[in-house]
Specification:
Shape: globular
Helix content: 25-40%
Distance between the termini: 35 Å
Structural class: alpha/beta
Radius of gyration: 17 Å
Strand order of the largest sheet: 6-7-5-4-8-9-11-10
Number of helices: 8
């Protein structure tokens, strides 16, 4: 079990948070908002997929690295704009070093257009602790499940079927212990055929590792100064163990 501690931050002159632990930025200095929308929302084709949801359908996004919550808030904003009223969004995010409530509030002042969503998140972002923590937002239409702890401890505890992945977290050179074959196998286990995945990095070992886990990844144009990034989808789903105590129960038909 990893020791629990909040993120240790420094702030630059523009008000952007920097991780003291990893020596890296949380988002692009050019525009975190535009970066998230391009790297994660656009490359996972979320606009068209949200618009195509049926009433009562749940769309599940998995993420490594909750950070400031920017990716979640952008996805929620897009979902609120395009998805049918009766559809629901479930966002599952792993974070080893969660921001304190005060640091989160300071970071979120950078994006005034997300203010209604940021305020709702901050009202529930209280007493963050190790393990699983569920936040119910937008009268139950949006669920945020935070998995606080090391990604290779938390994800094996999760049973889910994600429709899209935001493979975020700090750069592989800064945080090599996260970007491992064990992580890629967990992502595949928690996915289904056609689950999409996008990540800002185009490191060769990441692309090869994801391909070996069953994802078909390709290089696409990156954001800002980054020439390339990776996007793709799961082609070879993992068959779960056929044992009665592991079998997923039938999906409920009611609310």
């Amino acid at each position: 079990m990893t020791d629990f501690q909040h993120a240790q931050l420094d702030w630059d002159a523009s008000g952007q948070p920097l991780s003291r632990t990893y020596g890296d930025v949380y988002f692009s200095r050019a525009s975190g908002l535009v970066e998230t929308r391009y790297v994660f929302l656009q490359q996972n084709r979320l606009a068209e997929r949200f618009a195509a949801l049926a009433a009562g359908e749940v769309f599940t996004i998995g993420e490594t690295g909750f950070g400031t919550g920017l990716n979640f808030l952008c996805a929620w904003q897009l979902f609120a704009t395009l998805a049918p009223k009766a559809a629901r969004l479930h966002f599952v995010s792993v974070e080893r070093f969660p921001l304190t409530a005060a640091d989160l509030a300071q970071a979120l002042t950078l994006w005034p257009e997300l203010a209604p969503y940021s305020a709702a998140l901050q009202r529930q972002y209280q007493a963050i602790h190790p393990g699983f923590q569920r936040l119910i937002l937008d009268d139950g239409r949006v669920t945020l499940t935070l998995l606080v702890g090391d990604v290779l401890e938390r994800l094996p505890e999760l049973d889910a079927r994600c429709d899209a992945w935001f493979l975020d977290g700090f750069a592989p050179a800064k945080n090599p212990e996260m970007w491992t074959p064990a992580l890629f196998v967990e992502l595949a286990r928690l996915s289904h055929a056609g689950t999409t995945l996008a990540t800002f990095t185009c490191a060769g070992f990441v692309r090869r590792g994801l391909n070996e886990a069953g994802f078909a990844m390709a290089k696409v144009p990156g954001f800002g100064h980054k020439r390339e990034m990776l996007a793709g989808a799961l082609e070879r789903p993992v068959t779960p163990a056929a044992v009665p105590w592991y079998a997923r129960p039938p999906r409920p038909q009611g609310p």
